[in-house]
Design a protein that fits this description.
The protein is built from ten helices and eight strands. By secondary structure, it is an alpha/beta fold. The protein has one domain (3-295): Alpha/Beta hydrolase fold, catalytic domain (Rossmann fold), CATH 3.40.50.1820. Strands 1-2-4-3-5-6-7-8 form an eight-stranded mixed β-sheet, with helices on both faces. Strand 3 (68-72), helix 3 and strand 4 form a beta-alpha-beta unit. Helix 4 crosses helix 6 (148-162). The mean pLDDT is 96.
Length: 298
């Protein structure tokens, strides 16, 4: 493991998602400790997207932005909101120069699948319909997310393809949760890795799926046809249970004729880019911003 990251392991709270009240409290406290970037040149606005129910969003608009990223936060589908995601959504807007629309989707287990996907898809449609108001080109809309949010982004891309929804220019999948079956080597083997391990992943999927089946929109790795999806950037962490399913998804996209950029970050663990003092984290965040900027450039 990267030594700069390893030095912080003792500070991470132990959570297993069996006590959601404590897990959510710890997650929020970690988020508060992360400083947001300078927002002087970025207009930040809270809105609600009409849907059933309405979906809260936070919009980050850099000066002269021409494209937009619909962004879904991490947290195992059970934690996180617009406030916990604020430092990361703001950074993405700052680093990419794109409008970032952070989605406050409903959380499981109170609202199991497809609630979060429906909310995210509603925001994609709203973004396309309100492109002029947002000051963006409707042909330059991307979807993306981290962890559970990455899985949601992949599911939104599949649904938009299948339902002839708004055209998506690009999908940014950062350490996404894609496969509930947990059959890969990393999913079976990483039982004691930092922040995310096999048992925690199992609990997250149990909460998210509820009593319903795992469809391709809930677990995109189950999709049998990946042709016609938007170009993708897939990022993985070396010590992450989702690592191998993410790499396999990237390979399957490639085999289906989808352009893919895949980056496996050595020495990292799931979510370790939150340790901003580490050089590898700084490179990860800079790359995410640069990738979005390039994808949405004229």
């Amino acid at each position: 493991m990267d030594p700069e990251l390893e030095a912080f392991l003792a500070l991470f709270p132990k959570t297993d998602l069996t006590d959601l009240e404590t897990s959510r409290k710890n997650f929020a406290e970690l988020a508060v400790a992360v400083p947001a970037p300078d927002l002087t040149d970025i207009h930040v606005e809270n809105r609600t997207v009409p849907a059933d129910p309405e979906v809260p969003v936070r919009i980050y608009r850099p000066h002269l932005a021409q494209g937009a990223l619909v962004w879904m936060h991490g947290g195992g589908w059970v934690m996180g909101d617009l406030d916990t995601e604020h430092p990361w959504a703001a950074r993405l807007a700052e680093l990419s120069g794109a409008v970032v629309i952070s989605v406050g989707y409903r959380l499981a287990p109170e609202n199991p699948f497809p609630a979060a996907l429906d909310d995210s898809y509603a925001v994609l449609n709203w973004t396309a319909e309100h492109a002029a108001e947002l000051g963006i080109d409707p042909a330059r809309i991307a979807v993306g997310g981290h962890s559970a949010g990455g899985g949601l982004a992949a599911g939104v891309a599949l649904r938009a393809r299948d339902e002839q929804g708004p055209p998506i220019r690009f999908q940014l999948l950062n350490q996404p949760g894609l496969d509930d079956r947990q059959e890969t080597w990393s999913a079976r083997t990483f039982t004691d890795t930092p922040w995310m391990n096999r048992d925690k992943v199992t609990e997250a999927w149990r909460h998210y799926l509820g009593s319903g089946p795992a469809t391709r929109y809930a677990a995109p790795a189950r999709a049998t046809d990946l042709a016609g999806l938007p170009p993708a950037y897939v990022s993985t962490a070396e010590f992450c249970p989702s690592r191998d399913e993410d790499i396999e998804y990237a390979l399957r996209l490639l085999r289906a004729g989808v352009p893919v950029e895949l980056h496996q970050w050595a020495g990292t663990f799931h979510g370790s880019q939150a340790i901003l003092s580490a050089e590898v984290s700084q490179r990860q965040l800079a790359e995410l911003g640069a990738v979005v900027g390039r994808a949405l450039a004229g």
